[in-house]
Amino acid sequence: MKNPRYHGRWFRGGNFFAVFFRGIGLAMIAGGAVYAIVVLSFTTRAVHAEGIVIKMDTVKSALPFMEQVQGSGVLLYPVVRFTTENGKSVDFRAASGSQHQQYAIGDSVPVMYDPARPGEGRIGTLMGVWGAPLILIGIGAAFLLLGFLAPMGFGNTPRRLSSDD
User: Fold this and answer.
1) pLDDT tens-digit series, residues 45-64
2) Which is nearest to 151 in space by CA: 41, 48, 26, 8?
3) Rounded to an integer, what distance in angstroms lies between the CA atom of residue 97 and that of residue 76?
4) How far is it, in rounded angstroms, from Cα 28 to Cα 75?
C-alpha cells in the first residue's frame, strides 16, 4: 500500500518546483563537471604560445530576444593568430563572444592549443579556458540552492514546514 504522506510530499505546490529545480541544478553541475574533465584533459596536452588579435568577427545572435536584452544582438568574437612550435601560422576564432569588445586588434593574448589540432586553440585566460564549465556549475548551484529554498517559500513570510511535509 502506498504511503499517502510520502506520495504527496514531493508533488504538492512548492515541492514539485523544489524537485524540478534540484534536478535541473544537479544536471547542470554534472554537465559542468564532465566538461571540466574535458578541459582538464585539454590543458594537459596543450602547448602555450603568444597570439595577436587580428580581427573581430561580428555574429548576430540567432535568438530573437537577444536584440532586446543586449541592444544590438551582436556578439564580438576575437580572431587570434599564433605560431605553432613547428613554425606554422594558425588563426582561430575564440569560442565565446561578448557584446563589448574585450580585445583591440593588435593586442597580444596568451594562447593554448593542442598540437594535434592547433586550429582549435583557446585564449589562455581563466574564462577563455575554464569559462563554460564554471558557468554551468555556477548556474547549476544556483538552481540547486533554489530547489532547497523553494519548500520554505519565497515571500516575506516563509511557509513553516509541518511534521507531515
Assistant:
1) 999 999 999 999 998 876 66
2) 8
3) 5
4) 24
